[in-house]
């Protein structure tokens, strides 16, 4: 598979001047997703991508459920057994139809195999729009880890494989954000696949980051409180390093358990659910962000912390390690280490080395964001359609 993200002087120069050279005027894109921008990484991905596309002149409509002030909008919310913090939303057909008719999209992007995504696939045909499929989550693996999740076992596999096969069959291109996810997409039936980067909120890039403080005293985890995030490793690290303050932000099925652990450990603090506009100050206030997940197709929060020039520790299961330009700015939990061991190793390093690592992280994040925007524009313009089975975005 050709990879236009590989390091070269020409690519780096093109990436550094991308913002001024890009022009998406005349393009009309509908993003139809089951993921609410306020609730998870997939939703955040397409909200951030839409923001960058609009900045270069593209007309974009993000059609998805919305979560505001404790209420769900955009359709009929149904409870999701096993996770009271989430909802399964059936889209309002008249609402979606009106928005699609107003936009008359050239391209429809579908990143989820739920009701919104399947409706997006059908409406792409209606408007003779090119269908691009985003493949972000290996739901079958998540079902194995979540015993109470409604989509599990044979029912989950049958439903998800049916929906994904339909999307992959109709889609002109299937995009994933790691090599492992590309292989899974091919196994499911994708014929033409490509590697995509991850966008970063503009404010994270435009606002100068704070220099690293001396020493590592404040550790942050931010994300869904679910089994695949391996929160036990965070709790164990807090117990092993009582002199370090650990802060956990998010919501999910393990919230009650985490609150119990926070009551037990004086240096473990549960922040709760954090609004999107509060994420950047939360990251800036930390010395290290940790992501010890057992299943993580990419790890958007890790990239956002890199953009803010923070130290970032990730497990070997995080897809972000697939990107060589980003791996250089990350600390990886080694196979023979616990999260506490890795943090102790990081804390033992000289401050100048840590600051250099943080600078490398920010440079890598900025470079990936610029190139990702350029390649997304190539995809929606169908400039990569040369008959190859695999393309990179």
From TrEMBL:
A GO term for molecular function: transferase activity
Domain Glycosyl transferase family per the UniProt entry, residue ranges: 215-322
Gene3D superfamilies the record matches: Glycogen Phosphorylase B (3.40.50.2000)
Location of the Glycosyltransferase subfamily 4-like N-terminal domain: 40-191
Keywords annotated in UniProt: Transferase
A Pfam family this chain is assigned to: Glycos_transf_1
Full protein name: Glycosyl transferase family 1
Species of provenance: Thiohalocapsa halophila
């Amino acid at each position: 598979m050709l990879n236009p993200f590989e390091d070269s002087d020409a690519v780096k120069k093109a990436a550094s001047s991308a913002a001024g050279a890009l022009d998406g005027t005349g393009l009309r894109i509908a993003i139809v997703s089951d993921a609410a921008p306020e609730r998870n990484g997939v939703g955040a991905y397409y909200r951030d991508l839409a923001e960058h596309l609009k900045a270069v002149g593209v007309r974009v409509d993000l059609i998805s459920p919305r979560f505001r002030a404790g209420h769900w909008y955009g359709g009929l919310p149904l409870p999701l057994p096993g996770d009271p913090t989430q909802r399964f939303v059936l889209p309002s057909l008249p609402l979606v139809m009106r928005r699609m008719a107003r936009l008359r999209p050239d391209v429809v992007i579908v990143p989820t195999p739920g009701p919104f995504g399947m409706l997006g696939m059908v409406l792409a045909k209606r408007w003779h729009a090119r269908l691009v499929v985003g493949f972000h989550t290996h739901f079958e693996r998540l079902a194995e880890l979540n015993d109470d999740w409604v989509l599990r076992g044979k029912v989950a596999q049958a439903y998800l494989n049916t929906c994904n096969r339909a999307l992959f069959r109709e889609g002109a291109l299937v995009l994933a954000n790691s090599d492992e996810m590309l292989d899974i997409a091919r196994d499911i039936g994708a014929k033409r696949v490509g590697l995509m980067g991850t966008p970063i909120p503009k404010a994270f890039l435009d606002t100068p980051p704070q220099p690293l403080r001396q020493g590592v005293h404040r550790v942050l985890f931010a994300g869904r409180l679910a089994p695949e995030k391996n929160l036990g490793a965070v709790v164990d690290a807090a117990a092993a390093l009582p002199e370090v303050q650990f802060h956990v932000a998010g919501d999910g099925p393990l919230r009650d358990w985490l609150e119990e652990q926070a009551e037990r450990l004086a240096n473990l603090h549960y922040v709760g659910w954090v609004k999107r506009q509060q994420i950047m100050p939360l990251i800036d206030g930390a010395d290290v962000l940790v992501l010890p997940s057992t299943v993580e197709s990419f790890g958007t929060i890790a990239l956002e912390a890199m953009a803010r020039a923070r130290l970032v520790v990730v497990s070997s299961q995080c897809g972000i390690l697939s990107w060589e330009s980003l791996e250089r700015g990350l600390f990886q939990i080694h196979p023979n280490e616990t999260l506490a061991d890795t943090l102790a190793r990081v804390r033992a390093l000289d401050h100048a080395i840590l600051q250099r690592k943080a600078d490398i992280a920010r440079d890598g994040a900025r470079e990936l964001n610029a190139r990702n925007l350029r390649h997304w524009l190539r995809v929606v313009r169908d400039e990569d359609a040369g008959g190859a089975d695999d393309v990179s975005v």
